[in-house]
Amino acid sequence: MSNKTKPILSGIDHCHINVNNLSNAVAWYEKVLGFKVVEELAFWDETGKGPLTLQDQNTTTRLALFEGQVRSKGIAFGATGEQFIAWLAHFKSMDIKTVLADHGVTFSIYFKDESGNSHEITSHDYEHIKMFYPSVEQGSHSAKKS
Q1: Residue 111: its H or E element
Q2: What is the Cα–Cα distance from 17 to 119, expressed in whole angstroms?
Q3: In what order do the strands lie in the sheet with 99-102?
Q4: How far is CA 20 from the centre of its chain?
Q5: Pairwise CA distance, residues 22 & 132, whole Å
Q6: Rounded to an integer, what is the distance from CA 62 to the centroid of its chain?
Q7: Distance CA 138, CA 140 (A)
Q8: Cα–Cα distance between 100 and 15 in angstroms, integer?
Q9: The pTM is what?
Q10: pLDDT tens string 96-112
């Protein structure tokens, strides 16, 4: 199949996240990232182990939480430069450990949820963020830990 005949995706519908405890995870995603349960899809959680669908305040990002022992690969959330700076301050105010990385053309914040799943917030507004964090050296994920 050539590139001309491949169908187009409209974006990410949702990401599957495995968590240790479903109710604790729902509380964490609400408190830290502002996600809420999508009530019209809550019926899928028949056993109390998921899937339980959450979405962000802009209703653009959805997560399907499943209670289980396997770790998820995580999600890379997108942010503008201003949003990125605000997320760093938010995580600091909540005493959530982050790693700030300068990738040369993007910046990333790495953090973990209450079940130990790693996540990322990435911004392509490189120059804007670099003005606030000029001393962060370009390189690996361990560029700056806070």
Answers
A1: strand 107-112
A2: 10
A3: 76-78, 118-123, 107-112, 99-102, 144-145
A4: 17
A5: 37
A6: 10
A7: 7
A8: 23
A9: 0.73
A10: 999 999 999 999 999 99
Contact between 113 and 119 (Cβ < 8 Å)? yes
Q: What per-residue string of b and e applies to 87-102 under the rule 16 or more CB within 10 Å gives b?
A: bbeebeeeebebbbbb
The structure tokens listed for 94 are 């909540």
Other beta carbons within 10 angstroms of residue 107's beta carbon come to: 28
Query: Could you give the angle at the alpha carbon of 142 between the alpha carbons of 132 and 136, nearest 5°?
Result: 25
Report the candidate in 11, 22, 23 with the shortest Cα–Cα distance to residue 58.
11
Q: How far, in Å, CA of 35 to CA of 25, rounded?
A: 11
Asked if the peptide bond before residue 134 counts as cis, ω within 30 degrees of 0, the response is: no
Q: What pLDDT digit, counting tens, does each position of 74-92 carry?
A: 888 999 999 999 999 999 9
Residues, the chain: 146
Backbone angles phi, psi at 3, to 5 degrees: -60, -30
